[in-house]
Structures are given as structure tokens and as C-alpha cells.
């Protein structure tokens, strides 16, 4: 019997990621669900986790409702006018 490691071998060196947005109390972050199942539920959990790590930061929940549609002008306008950052989530 042979076992295979499904992770594979990276083809490129791993690059570290550093958060560039410095969020302050009163800032707002859009949590934008793409309409796939569980994307809204995932962002609700993310809101709770981020609220603990980022006290005073507010979260605006948005949902495209249709995974195959583009983000609407209303969604994009709300994000641009009201938010410092945005997290887009993909369900499964």
C-alpha cells in the first residue's frame, strides 16, 4: 500500500503576507459574501473573531446573493463610501 501526500510540492517559494491596513476603532470593514452556500455563515463567524481582535472596528455585511453575478454598483458604492477595507468570501 502506498500513501500519497495530497499537499504536493510548492512550485514557488512561500512569500510571507503582512497586513497593510491599520484599522482603528471606528473604521468599518465590509464582509462581502459572494452568494455561494455558507459564505454568509462564514462571514458571521469571521465577524465574531475579528471583533475580538479589532475592538471598536465595525463590520458591514453584504451579500451578492448570486455567485455568478458581478458585484452591483450599490454594493461597490457602499464599500467605497463607508469602508476602510473589504473581505470577500467564497462559500462552497
The overall pLDDT, averaged over residues, is 89
Q: Radius of gyration, Cα only, in angstroms?
A: 17 Å
Oligomeric status: single chain
Secondary-structure element string:
EHEHE
**Strand order in the largest sheet:** 2-1-3
State the end-to-end distance. 32 Å
| C-alpha geometry | extended
Major sheet size, sense and barrel closure: 3 strands, parallel
What is the beta-strand fraction? 15-25%
Based on secondary structure, the structural category is alpha/beta
Number of strands: 3
The helicity comes to: 25-40%
Q: Count of helical segments?
A: 2
Low-pLDDT stretches: none
What does the model show?
- The protein has two helices and three strands, in the order βαβαβ.
- It is 27% helix and 18% strand.
- With 92 residues, it is of the alpha/beta class.
- The mean pLDDT is 89.
- It is extended, with a radius of gyration of 17 Å.
- A three-stranded parallel β-sheet has the order 2-1-3, sandwiched between helices.
- Strand 1 (28-33), helix 1 and strand 2 (58-63) form a beta-alpha-beta unit.
Which characteristics define this entry?
3-stranded parallel beta sheet; extended; alpha/beta; 3 strands; 92 residues
List the helices and strands and how they pair.
Elements lengths: L27 E6 L5 H15 L4 E6 L9 H10 L2 E5 L3
Parallel strand pairs: 1-2, 1-3
Summarize the entry for a quick read.
The protein has 92 residues and is of the alpha/beta class. Helix content is 27%, strand content 18%.
